[in-house]
Every structure is written in structure tokens, then in C-alpha cells.
Amino acid sequence: MAHHTKGFPTLSAVSSTLTFTSDTAVVSQYTPTEYERTTYYNGITRDHPELVYRSDFLTTPFPKPVGRYAHIPVKSLHGVYDTPLNGVWETVGPKIVDLITTRKINWSSVDPARFFTHATPGEEEKGSLGPVVIWVGVSPGSTSSDAACEVSQEILALLREHEVKDAVVEWREAVLQRLAGPPLMHHVGSTNPTHHVRPFLTALLDIPLVDALIMASRTSAVFLGLQSELGLIAPGYRADLVAFTPGFEVVGTWVAGQSVGSMGEASGVSHRG
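RE: above sequence
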């Protein structure tokens, strides 16, 4: 049954306005331009992902720069701290995944994020931090902008129900890649000492290993408001550590500075602060 979501007609509602011919390709009104698709995430990684759809395309245009000194915006990926989403993410995150999965979309990751747009060289102070983004990664060529638009409206409605406003949903094409040679890591249970590290070493798009480990440690500590005691190897910080081989085999685990054996017993190694 055709229906409308406030501000965005669904695919079924706009299909009657599309005319198909054998030699003419119809481009959806939700599909980004070639320039926006290929440059929107410029700077995020060495081979930045391509944009599929973003829910704020009507209110926040992304024009192609022109002129002699045209400058393509450069972005960097930031964490999400001290926002209404932080307090409800554990509730809405799984529901967002359910909304995407129900549509049988071939997705690879769903993450909260914010993007900082850097100013032109010499005007660094004019850079700006964007809104909270629900960043959805999908397999290349698997998801249309129309499908992404429809699901995005459901996601935004869910966020509004939990008092999360002014958020944006962005979809990108994401390919799972190896980080530094070893194969991508499989999911393990919460009792495994590498449980909280592995998500950052599986579904992220070509993130350097050092950056991934920072996201799994320091960034997570700041997100939880525990940056004064967790997330760094430094005096005064809680010494919860895991040592790996280059192939990600665990060779040592320490909890509060105590070396933990295979049976979870502390061996009595002193806390180094």
C-alpha cells in the first residue's frame, strides 16, 4: 500500500511519476550526483567510500566547487560524545539493525559517527563538526538510493521516538578488507579477552590498524566518560591489556595489572600503574 513519510515520499508513491523507456535510464531523485557520490567522503580513508544516499540532501547541499582555486572538502571521522544518542544507543542500535535487516539489505556495518569538514589551508579555524550520523555500510551495487531513503525515514522516526533529533542517516558502499595482512577476525563471546577489540578489526573500511586499536580503546573510553582511567597505557590508568602476535594470536592478558592465566587466575604480577 502506498504511503508517505513526512517530508519524503516513498518509492511506491513516486513510481507513478517515472517514465521508463528501453534506451533511457531513469535516475532517482534521491541518487547523489557523480561528483557527490565519489567525493563526499574525501579524506576519510586512503580510498574513501562512495556515498549511496544521505537523509539531509535537501537541506544541506553539496555543490561542486568551481573557479581557479576550487577546493574539494576534506573530512575526518570523529566519535560521538555527549549527545542524546549516547544514552539510548544500546536500545536503538539493535532496532536500527532490525529495520535494515527486515528489508533484506546486504549491510556490513551500522555505526554512530560525526564528520569534521576541514577548511581550506590557512583557514583551519573555519572547519566545522557535522551532526550525529547513523552511518550504514552496504555491499557495492546492492542497495538503491530509493531503498536507503525509505529505511532512513524509519530510522529517523525511531530516533525521534527516543528524543534524538537533528540526526542524519548516511549510506555508503563498504567493502570488508584486510588491515595489515592477517585475515579478518571472527566474532567471539564476551568472555574472550579480544571480544571488545574484534568489532573494530572486522567491519571497518580500510582503517589502519593503529587507528582501529585507538577506536577500540581510547575512543571507547571517552564515549563512556571513563577517559581519566581507561584507554591509555600511562601512569594512573587501569592496566587492562591484551598482547597479540602479528597474526592476532593472544599471548598475554592483564586485568588491573595482574597477569591472568588461561583459567582466569591472577599470577601475581605487580601493578605498574
